[in-house]
Every structure is written in structure tokens, then in C-alpha cells.
Amino acid sequence: EPEVTQTPSHQVTQMGQEVILRCVPISNHLYFYWYRQILGQKVEFLVSFYNNEISEKSEIFDDQFSVERPDGSNFTLKIRSTKLEDSAMYFCASSRQGNTEAFFGQGTRLTVV
Amino acid sequence: QKEVEQDPGPLSVPEGAIVSLNCTYSNSAFQYFMWYRQYSRKGPELLMYTYSSGNKEDGRFTAQVDKSSKYISLFIRDSQPSDSATYLCAMSPPNSGYALNFGKGTSLLVTP
User: Fold this and answer.
1) Which residue, B35, B57, B70, B100, could crosslink B47 as a Cys pair with Cβ 3.0–4.6 Å?
2) Phi then psi for B72, rounded to 5 degrees?
């Protein structure tokens, strides 16, 4: 069964460092998303991406964040200068169309120290 | 007022019981409704997807949407210990980048 794949599963980084989280969405999906979940809190939307551009972003997705689809399969989230409060699980998701089911990856646990 | 409200539980039921999980919401523009199951430190797993109002059944799971009351439900029949997880409701309006608004999740424990 097709699935969304995320790497790495766990990333530890020092405050101020840049991190890149990687995702391989389901192959015939056209919409891509990043969400995050701080421990004990709800899943929060960060950004959606369609047709090689951002279609919506939340207030969390400030200038420190960027997304890219560098080739036909990968979808990345970059955090330029990590802060302690960026520590969370980051989930990538994809959907075939914008109004259909969104499937999530297993997440990358980001720990900023 | 939070856009999506969900009782965090925990909810504990004996094996075989019918489980009812619920969410309320405030944004009348929401049209797409999903239920996810999340095990500890794992990604949300899609269980049910419904559009607008009505019922949808898939095996032991039934999803209901009542847009007039802004209330959605997930019923689990013949619950099993393997159903023990956190259940998240999520919803989105059309034409907004399809960003999902999640509830905080209800923790369910099914005891043998």
C-alpha cells in the first residue's frame, strides 16, 4: 500500500542551526502539507503546497520556514535557524486532490537543544 | 472559541463495547471531515473521510456529520484492545489550501 515516507525519524540539532526535513509523498498525489505536533498538543497546520507553490500557510510558518519540491518525488521543510520551541513532531501529508483524504507520514521528531 | 473541540478523555471501555467519539466545531464553512487514529509517537492514520452531512460506514467504524449542529461522531462497534489509541477529528473548508483543523484528540483504552 502506498505511503508517505519521512526521513529522518529523529533529528537532534543545536539552537540556531538549520535543519531540513524530508518527505516522499504518495506518487500520484498533487497536494502536499506539513504539520507539526508539540508534545501533548494538537496537530497544527503549517503549510500546503500545490503546483510548485505555497497555497496556504499558517501564522506559525514564518520567514524561518521554507518548503521546496526539488525533484519529482521529494518535498522538504527547511527551518533556517532553529529555536527551542521548534522542538516537535513534524508530519508530512499528501492528498490526491485538495478535497480528498490526506495521508500522513510517520513523522520526524525534531529536538532542538 | 476554539474552532474544533474534542474531549481529551481518557475514555476506558471493556472489549466488545460500542465506543462513541465526538467533536464540535464553530466554523460553518467546514465541509470535509476526517477521523484519524494515532498511536503514541506515530503519524495520524486515516480512518474515515466524509463530505458534508450524513453517515458513512466502513467495517466496525461509522462516521456521522450533523452540520446543523456542527457536531461529528465516530462510532466503533465491537471494540478491540488494538483500538486503544488517540482518535483525532479533523476538518477543513473548501478552497483554503485544504488545511486541516484538528481536535486535540480523545485517548481511548479498550480493556480485555
Assistant:
1) B35
2) -125, 150
